[in-house]
Design a protein that fits this description.
It contains five helices and no strands. It is mainly α.
């Protein structure tokens, strides 16, 4: 991965009000990632990066998808087990924040 792509992925993970397309893209990744091990998540990330080409020119949903695969791959790097959103502190924090925002 190039330094430019890494910078784009880091920027996509910065706190911001995500668009509906970004939320959908991240949820799609989490659904697909459920049950995957690190090497499988890494392969999915590499496939998204290859398909996206220049991430700086990709739309927000593609950047969100790539960033979510990167985050999950990093999470699983030393996890030793399959991914599950139920034990992902980042996802659980988002869900809690959204619930509080609605209340």
């Amino acid at each position: 991965m190039t330094d430019d792509a890494e910078a784009v992925l880091e920027a996509a993970l910065e706190p911001h009000q995500p668009s509906a397309a970004e939320i959908t893209a991240r949820q799609h990744v989490r659904d697909r990632a459920t049950g995957l091990a690190h090497h499988e998540a890494q392969a999915a990330l590499e496939a998204v990066l290859a398909a996206a080409g220049d991430l700086e020119r990709a739309d927000a949903a593609v950047r969100a998808e790539a960033a979510e695969w990167q985050r999950i791959s990093d999470l699983l790097f030393d996890h030793g087990g399959p991914y599950t959103p139920d034990t992902d502190a980042y996802v659980q924090g988002q869900l809690t924040a959204r619930q509080r925002h609605r209340d």
